[in-house]
Amino acid sequence: MESLTLSHEIGILAGIFLVAAYGLMNFGVLDTSSPLYQSLNVLGALGFAYTAFAPFNPGLLITEIVWAVVAVAFLWKIFTRKNTATDEGAEAEVAETELADAHVAEEPALDSVPNR
């Protein structure tokens, strides 16, 4: 059986991506909430899944597809959480500004306070 086009090169890159993600996480450079960490996992898993087609290796293919789906799900979670946090942060900032403006309006001006 003939292997797929560039399967060896893609397999090598996939291994580099997965080992880089694992190493960077273990050395504290990245954590699992990092988009780079999850992206490296997606690329590595998809690369290994590609190499599992010829010669066909169902165990590797299933494992790598599940790995990629999990990493994509965490990427989705990361980006939706950041957008939610940004929206909530903007709302909180507006509320704080309105509160500060209301507080300033309630304070008497210094020149209107009588001398004692």
From TrEMBL:
The keyword Transmembrane applies. Coiled coil: none annotated. Keywords: Membrane, Transmembrane, Transmembrane helix. InterPro entries: CBU_0592-like. It comes from the Bacteria. The chain crosses the membrane at residues 6-24, 36-53, 59-79. This is CBU-0592-like domain-containing protein.
